[in-house]
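call fold(seq) -> C-alpha cells
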Amino acid sequence: MIHSLQTFVICPNVIIVRDQKILLLRRVEKASFFAGYWHVPTGKIEGNESPKQTIVREVFEEIGLRTNPFLETVVATKIPHFKNPELTWKDISLFFVVQEFEGEPFNKEPHLHDAMEWFDINHLPDPIIPVVKFGIEQYMKGKAYGEFGYGDMP
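ret:
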C-alpha cells in the first residue's frame, strides 16, 4: 500500500464575544472569496508565527484590538476549492475566542471589509461563510472538534 501525505491549510479565526454578541466583518463586493459574506477576523500565518500569534496580529491589523485569545474549537474542512470547483480545498480551521480586549474595534481595512457589526450570537446574519457559521455553532455547543464538508463529498 502506498501512502501519500495529506496537505491541509491552517486557517486561524477568532470569535470576539462581548455581552452575548459576536463581532463580524463583511467582505467587500470585489473580494475574490465569498464577496459580501460576513465572517470573523482571520488571516494567513506569516513566517514562523504560531496560529495564536497570527490571530493576535490579524485582530490588531483588521480591527485595532489588543487581545489574548484562547483556542476553543477545531474544524476539519473539505469543500470544493473556491477558485476551481474541480479541486478540493482542505483546511484545519482553528477558532480562537476573545472575551476580553483592549481598545474599541474599528474597521482598519475598509478595502477588504465594508461593514463591521456586533450580532447576537444566537442570531447570525445571512450570508455568512458556511464554515465560519459552523465553527461558531461548534463553539456555542461547547464542542472542541467538528468536521465540515466530509459527509457529502468523496
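The longest helix spans residues 51-63.
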